[in-house]
């Protein structure tokens, strides 16, 4: 299993293309019936991502091409030989990465335009975000027994 490392996070953050697609799926390590559900879950997630792309105005052929690497995994026997508790897939134009993770992930599909520079600009313009100091909250944020 290839572990998700800080360099992988940096590579994701550097993607400046629209769309950025993230697919998160719980998967199963063992159990005949359960493991048979995993490719179906991935196929459904790819379908939901395609629907979101089309709703956002992405061309049908372009959406199919963008999602093709993830769709190819659905029928890949070799891919499904190695299992973990979760699967995270990240796609952007001409870019695809996936990670098997030892965490039970929530089934989720995210299609977004992620511009970290714009987010930081907005964050700095809102005093609430710019001036907050969570390290000084101390006992205010401790969970009660």
Record keyword descriptors for this entry.
single chain, alpha+beta, four-stranded antiparallel β-sheet, 145 residues, Translation, Eukaryotic Peptide Chain Release Factor Subunit 1, Chain A
How many H/I helical runs?
6
> What is the average of the pLDDT values?
85
The domain count comes to 1
CATH topology: Translation, Eukaryotic Peptide Chain Release Factor Subunit 1, Chain A
Structural class: alpha+beta
DSSP strand count: 4
The side-by-side strand order for the widest beta sheet comes to: 3-2-1-4
| CA-CA gap between termini | 38 Å
The helical percent reads 40-55%
Global outline: globular
Would you list the SSEs in sequence order as H and E? HEHHHEEEHH
Summarize the structure.
The protein is α+β, with helices and mostly antiparallel strands and 145 residues long.
Could you describe the 3D structure shown?
It is a single chain. By secondary structure, this protein is α+β, with helices and mostly antiparallel strands. It has a single domain, classed as Translation, Eukaryotic Peptide Chain Release Factor Subunit 1, Chain A, CATH 3.30.960. It contains six helices and four strands, in the order αβαααβββαα. A hairpin with a 2-residue loop joins β2 and β3. α2 runs antiparallel to α3. The mean pLDDT is 85.
